[in-house]
UniProtKB/TrEMBL annotation:
Keywords, in A-Z order: Amino-acid biosynthesis, Cytoplasm, NADP, Oxidoreductase, Proline biosynthesis
Source organism, top-level taxon: Bacteria
GO molecular function terms noted in the UniProt entry: pyrroline-5-carboxylate reductase activity
NCBIfam families tied to this protein: proC
Descriptive protein name: Pyrroline-5-carboxylate reductase
Top EC class for this record: oxidoreductase
Role: Catalyzes the reduction of 1-pyrroline-5-carboxylate (PCA) to L-proline.
Reaction(s) catalysed by this chain's protein: L-proline + NADP(+) = (S)-1-pyrroline-5-carboxylate + NADPH + 2 H(+); L-proline + NAD(+) = (S)-1-pyrroline-5-carboxylate + NADH + 2 H(+)
This protein's encoding gene: proC
Compartment annotation: Cytoplasm
Ranges for domain Pyrroline-5-carboxylate reductase dimerisation: 172-276
Keyword match Cytoplasm: yes
Length: 281
């Protein structure tokens, strides 16, 4: 995929705190888009991850959060929810001195918690991106605390817009549902891909052929969903010849409780977001 170049949408440096899976996707997407790694710093304690980010994208790596955050206009907190409180507490003095725009991508953790742990009085944006950001085809839900002014909201949105569309959410409670649908969502499609591939092999297909057929089918269906102005059920009906093969499969999904299963899975992920907030306060 070719992503058009555009400059990094932030004046000043961006410090990523945490350089794991999601930070890697965001950094990779940002650098591919802007061709500019000079303004991106990352704090990551795992040497192999830190070195990998420097090698692959040219960003500066630090082993301490404060060293990366020092002087940066935007802090993007990309550590696990379970360590967020400790990381924020460690950065609180610097946050009060510097007053950066703080963006957290952690599941569950609220803007109120983040602001409190960082010492208060800060612009805090909660963002929920997903890993397709790496290829510029992510999507991000955004929620800002009331201290975030319009320019700061625009700054946060511009940063995440560089790796796919953004959607502002008015009610922070809904960020847990955003997380369940689109933050975690790529994993559900990868699970479906794994299952379809295994089922194709079970029906006698060579593994490489099964893989190619599944990959292009998911890409083709996703492209139709996004590029045609037609709802999913209409597109599904068009594949489903009466008495044909698709009908046999769809009936099998429906009698197996597919919709209820998806509903339970999304509800479980949403509830887990709430638990992560409460358990790590
Ligand atoms: N993966 C995804 O698809 C998405 C993840 N998220 C959110 O992004 C956040 C990160 O997730 P993910 O990237 O998957 O997790 P990872 O565990 O891959 O990345 C987090 C990284 O932060 C490091 N870290 C721990 N403490 C510090 C510290 N004090 N300073 C700097 N770095 C530190 C961790 O090191 P160590 O392993 O040694 O602790 C780890 O390498 C989570 O809060 C998650 O909810 C949001 C959207 C999608
Ligand atoms: O699984 C998680 O908790 C994170 C948040 C969304 C995707 N990964």
């Amino acid at each position: 995929m070719t992503i058009p170049d555009s400059p990094l949408p932030i004046a000043g440096a961006i410090a990523f705190i945490g350089g794991g899976n999601m930070a890697r996707s965001l950094i990779g997407g940002l650098v591919a888009r802007s061709r500019d790694a000079t303004a991106i710093r990352v704090a990551e304690p795992v040497v192999a991850l830190r070195d990998g980010l420097h090698r692959d994208f040219g960003v500066a790596g630090f082993d301490q959060a404060a060293a990366a955050a020092q002087g940066a206009a935007v802090w993007l907190l990309a550590v696990k929810p379970q360590v967020m409180r400790a990381v924020c507490t460690e950065l609180a003095t610097l946050a009060q001195a510097q007053r950066p725009v703080v963006i957290s991508i952690a599941a569950g953790i609220t803007v109120t918690q983040l602001e409190r742990w960082l010492g208060g009085g800060l612009a805090v944006v909660r963002a929920m991106p997903n890993t397709p950001a790496l290829l510029g085809v992510g999507i991000t839900g955004l929620y800002a605390n009331p201290r975030t002014d319009t320019a700061q909201r625009d700054q946060a949105a511009a940063l995440l817009d560089a790796v796919g569309p953004t959607v502002w959410i008015d009610d922070e409670a809904q960020m847990d549902a955003v997380t369940a649908v689109s933050g975690s969502g790529p994993a559900y499609l990868f699970l479906l891909a794994e299952a379809m591939q295994a089922a194709g092999i079970a029906q006698g297909l060579p593994p490489q052929a099964a893989r190619a057929l599944v990959q292009q089918t998911l890409l083709g269906a996703a492209t139709m969903l996004t590029q045609l102005d037609e709802p999913a059920d209409v597109l599904r009906t068009r594949v489903t010849s009466p008495g044909g093969t698709t009908q046999a499969a769809v009936e099998s999904f429906e009698t197996g409780g597919f919709r209820a299963l998806v509903d339970r899975a999304i509800a479980a992920a949403t509830e887990r977001g709430r638990q992560l907030s409460a358990a790590n306060d």
